[in-house]
From TrEMBL:
Protein family (similarity comment): Belongs to the glycosyl hydrolase 1 family.
GO molecular function, one term: beta-glucosidase activity
InterPro entries in UniProt: GH (IPR017853), GH_1_N_CS (IPR033132), Glyco_hydro_1 (IPR001360), Glyco_hydro_1_AS (IPR018120)
UniProt keyword annotation of Hydrolase present: yes
Pfam families assigned: Glyco_hydro_1
Residues the record marks as active site: E396
Keywords: Glycoprotein, Glycosidase, Hydrolase, Signal
Protein name per Swiss-Prot or TrEMBL: beta-glucosidase
The enzyme's E.C. designation: 3.2.1.21
Amino acid sequence: MIACDTLVLCLILQLCSADRRFPANFKFGAATSSYQIEGGWNADGKGESAWDSFVHEHVGDIKNCATGDVAADSYHQWREDVRIAAEMGLQFYRFSISWPRVLPSGFTDKINKAGVRYYSDLIDALLAEGIEPVVTLYHWEMPVKIRDLGGWSNPLIADWFGDYARVIFSLYADRVKTWLTINEAISICDYAFTKGHFAPKIKEPVFAPFLCNKHLLLAHATAYRIFEREFRPKFPGRISLANYELWIRPATINDTELAELGRQHSTGRYAHPIFSKTGGWPPSIEKLMLEYSLRQGYQRSRLPPFSTEEVEFIKGTADFYGMNHYTTSLIRPAKPGEGPGIWDVTGSPELNAILESPPDSKYGVSPILPIVPEGIREQLSWLKKEYGDIDILITENGFSTKDYELNDLERTEFFKEYLEQVLLSIKVDNVSVVGYTAWSLIDNFEWLDGYTTKFGLHEVDFSHPNRTRTPRTSAHFLACVIRNNSLDVPDSCYKHKYLADLATQNGSYVARGVLLLDAILIYISFVFR
Ligand code: BGC
């Protein structure tokens, strides 16, 4: 009888554990971006980017007056990045190329050989370790000359970005098979121009977000079409962009329609033109923007129209869906006199709506990123409902901490909870999620927060000249998940590994002492459990 019960239990357990396995072709990776990690801001002929000039000219705008001048020094320490990625068993590494490191003026008049070699060596080293390079062309490093010519407000940027993309494809398409043109269009267009406190430090919330929205989509599509026409026949590869997806829930049952409008205003404006069957702006937003603009006294919509040719040119320019996801907000109508503020963080004047955090949320350090694991599953299902059964690559998801802390149990829990929801999305909702990218491989320059907010699977010692990288518990955890291709990993696989790392790294008696103390504490908690 006992044997029989045990057998049943074993079968159930096996089923459970089979359920927590990822599909065989599912891939795990981690991401970084050039400005946030490279440093070497003016090394070997690199040109200046809008972020270089922003941090130098507006010193007080960044916490502790930090800059990305050295950052994690990946311009020199990139072999370390490859080593730690390999140690984790990452199947891909998502990094970005700094436009002015390769084209110092932003244009093709001069190609910087040192910059070309830097990325070439990085790609070769990744491939030698069996790690697929996933390359983003633009993670916010606009060459200053292009910024000064109007940046995303100038329609010619579509051609200039296309020229840059062509140079990069011709250099690396023989080895890079997965491309992302632009990271987080909504952060570039809506957040930057409504906040006005982010490079290029222009506050113009009326026209700039919408001009930028249109020109950025044209720039993306230009790069896609160049790849499709000139490179894909010889160098097969897939290409998309990484959109930032805030999942929006109604605050009350009465706000259901508003929530859908909110999703179209955030996700839809950057995805509908590319991923929908019809192309063009989401109809609900096109209508809203026209009516609102006319009411404001303008002669036409502030959301610039697409010509029929432009609709066709942009439509279908993605081979998969790239999704950055961090959080979920509730939406409700603004009360009289309430200022809706910044889209898509606090609200939208166009929608006359306020965004707020779900009550009782847990947080990392970032007050604008409440932790709502179920939100990622809801967002994934919405994408499938809107745009059909397309492959979705989660291109970023991560958790912030502060201070130096190797035993990041909260971040580890975050990854567990979000990955559980991703599994449910794949297995229960039948969404084709093909991979997951943790943000970030290492601590880095977290934009306005400087180095005070840390997203790294690896801690970076910013006081050390080598910017030493050390794995956190979350890195050990993800390494175990990758090895098992399952969320079922024994605690022993990753817990307390950080102490062993410390002991070997320092060889110090202190670390060994901490290790011993920790073992005693585990023993005591076991005895008095
Ligand atoms: C951006 C990253 C940033 C991360 C955490 C994402 O929106 O792509 O550059 O570091 O969020 O704030």
